[in-house]
Amino acid sequence: MKIIRVIEELNNGKPILELASELGISAKLLKTKLNNAAIEFDADTKVWKYIGPNKEISLNRDITKTIKLLAIDKPFVKRNEINNKQSSPSCDSDYILYKDYLSGSQEKIETKKTIFFSEDIYDLIKSISKRKSLKISVLIHVLLTRGLEFYNLTDDEIIN
Q1: Given 68, 83, 98, which residue is the final one in a domain?
Q2: How distant is the alpha carbon of residue 37 from its chain centre?
Q3: Please, are residues 7 and 50 in contact by the beta-carbon 8 Å criterion?
Q4: pLDDT one-digit tens code per residue, 82-126
Q5: Which residues are CB-neighbours of 146 under 8 A, at least 6 positions away?
């Protein structure tokens, strides 16, 4: 599907999650591809629009392929600091995650429970799990443990 068609679909009211699902990619990846194509959402008019100088080149690319930032679009694209991993101070976060993962080994996880996630969160956890070669159950255990520690939640607060 061409980028111009993606913009039309989004501007006709199709949710980005639904469109991403139809394309077989995550919503985050779709947003990144749109950003690389110099397309942004105008919150005032509630419309996705191209902000670069050359629609013919930028919008006629296939969204299912890699969308690299074109030199002509570069001055118009706002880059998030999140995407710039070299300047990120969390370079040790991979090590910390791996260390926590090892301490939360599969043997310690004994109880099987059903838990519901939004599609985005599940896709993100699954992607991280695959990318870092971690078991999903142990990764979720580590994330929940760290979250409970972060918010200083203990058993005393859970008991009524």
Answers
A1: 83
A2: 17
A3: yes
A4: 344 444 444 567 777 777 777 765 666 777 888 898 999 999 999
A5: 100
Give me the numbers of helices (H) and strands (E) for the chain, helices first please.
8, 2
Contacts of residues 18-24 at CB distance under 8 Å and 24 or more positions apart, as own/partner, are 21/119, 23/63, 23/64, 24/64
User: How many residues in total does the chain contain?
Assistant: 160
Q: Which residues contact 72 (CB under 8 A, 6 or more apart)?
A: 52, 53, 54, 57, 58
Q: Which domain holds residue 51?
A: 3-83
pTM for this prediction: 0.50
Domain boundary among 60, 83, 106: 83
Q: What is the pLDDT of residues 1-54, one digit of tens each?
A: 999 999 999 999 998 888 888 888 888 889 889 999 999 888 888 899 999 898
Which two tokens mark 108?
Answer: 């310690």
Contact residues for 40 (Cβ-Cβ < 8 A; gap 6+)? 34, 48, 49, 51, 78
